[in-house]
Amino acid sequence: MKLESYSPYSGVEQGCFIEGESGLLYPGVRIENISYPLTISSVQGAVCSCLANRDKPVRYYSEQPDPELLHWWAEQYDFEIIRKLPEKGELFSPLKAPSEIPSVSDALEELLAYAVTIHSDFPVSALILTSEGYVGGVNVEVPSWSLGLCAERVAIARTIAHNFSDLHEISICAPKSEFSSPCGACRQVLSEFMPDSVVELYHGDSSLSRHNVRHLLPYSIITQALKKK
Length: 229
Hints:
By secondary structure, the chain is an alpha/beta fold. The protein has helices at 42-51, 70-77, 104-111, 151-161, 184-193, 213-216; strands at residues 15-20, 24-29, 57-61, 80-82, 90-91, 95-96, 125-129, 134-138, 169-173, 198-202, 208-212.
């Protein structure tokens, strides 16, 4: 599998695989954002994808320069750093065909059991419809609060790392919230990858509302000046 970063601002290529205790390989790539601090590093995306599958990271593989905070992640989860690509292993697939999902609401509810909520006990699930099928994600909290990823960003990270295309729609469920809604950081990331897409919000009172990503983040930053010449 070719690891292709989304790095239009820096041009930095960054990709890795995290091997889980299960033996599955979780790809991660650098995913930049026009709001630079929201950039997802390759190791962050791969570890969070692993944890969101109830798996435990045991090895990191990459031939590229180290991503930000690699050694922090390795220390937290006690995984081995191997500076080459894996020679074998089964690739984790987050993809489900539409025929495998009888209803979006049921799929979101099933995903909630995978949420990693070591700080909040507030599970959230997200499901992105791509041209290849559905890609799910859940919120993953890690020891450092600021390095965890929301469900929407785990789903985005998986979608980009697996080279899935055309993000048509995202559905989000937060059953403990009176009104499900993406946080500001997720709205910024969604606007980077699916600005004209529909957002379905499944609320705690069992109601549903539909919105456009652009409407969730009016007057978002748009500029070519940040790109390196």
